[in-house]
Amino acid sequence: MLNLLRLLKPLAATGSRKAIALSSSGVLRGRTFSSNARPAEFERNVVESHYGPMDIPKVSLPEYIFSPDIAQAADKPALSCGSSKRSYAFGMIHEMNRRMAHALLSQKGCAMQKGEVVGLLLPNIPEYVPAIYGSLMAGLTVTFANPLYTPEEICRQFENAGVRLVITLPVLLPVAQIYKSKAKKYRGTVSIGGQHNVQDNIFGFQQLLMENHESELPVIDPEETAILPYSSGTTGMPKGVELTHNNLVANLVQGTHPEFAKYYRPEYAGITETILTIPPFFHIYGFNAILNMCLKTRNHLVSIPR
């Protein structure tokens, strides 16, 4: 409380008022109003990068990652599992993304609706990409959880995010079934490595893609929410963060300057490197700075599931 009073004291001295509100979802929101502040005062606090401004394209994350040269990289290795050695080229991954998107929206498939939330409960495996990008191409929002969390922790996050469908592995199906018993309007579970089970509303991932479902993919506004990553809960209960397609694309564009991104230098044009990834994809750094950056630069990423 003492620290808070010290923080607010300068505002009172300058005639400012601090309005703080706590939303129903537990997100702290605050705005500062000043009656005698001038624009010039704020300009002095703007820090500009010496690298210069970057042009942020107004596109969805799937469009940014997989367009426009994906056809030229179709035969290049994209993702490999360091444990099983299974591997996919960029062309195959892109086709899996497309088929997954159609299956998620198809009335004969998962019957999801644009804007609904998919929960990923997966380790680092190559199929993570069609799971998340198929969802994003379908206009869905994705939240991902640590598969080592307890069922209670996973259910809390998924309930908070409003998850309607879970994508996971056969070994984690019991956790998905626990969440299913708690969820409202639950549409099903996709099992990577599993088979269709109509009775339990489980879709086998491979079967789902091979059925080649048809549906109309929506136009995605870059300002729509793409993912809902959650904090680890170090200083309290885990909290979700809404990140739009534009947020993620802007962050990736920040890493394209040739002075610190070697893959955007002329001498690296056409060169493919094999990169081993350790950070988990369910962490925002592992997802955007590792997985997405490697996909965008058409490098070969090797994942380790555990």
Automatic annotation (TrEMBL):
<feature type="domain" description="AMP-dependent synthetase/ligase">
    <location>
        <begin position="71"/>
        <end position="303"/>
    </location>
</feature>
<dbReference type="InterPro" id="IPR000873">
    <property type="entry name" value="AMP-dep_synth/lig_dom"/>
</dbReference>
<dbReference type="GO" id="GO:0005777">
    <property type="term" value="C:peroxisome"/>
</dbReference>
<dbReference type="InterPro" id="IPR020845">
    <property type="entry name" value="AMP-binding_CS"/>
</dbReference>
<dbReference type="Pfam" id="PF00501">
    <property type="entry name" value="AMP-binding"/>
</dbReference>
<keyword id="KW-0576">Peroxisome</keyword>
<protein>
    <recommendedName>
        <fullName>AMP-dependent synthetase/ligase domain-containing protein</fullName>
    </recommendedName>
</protein>
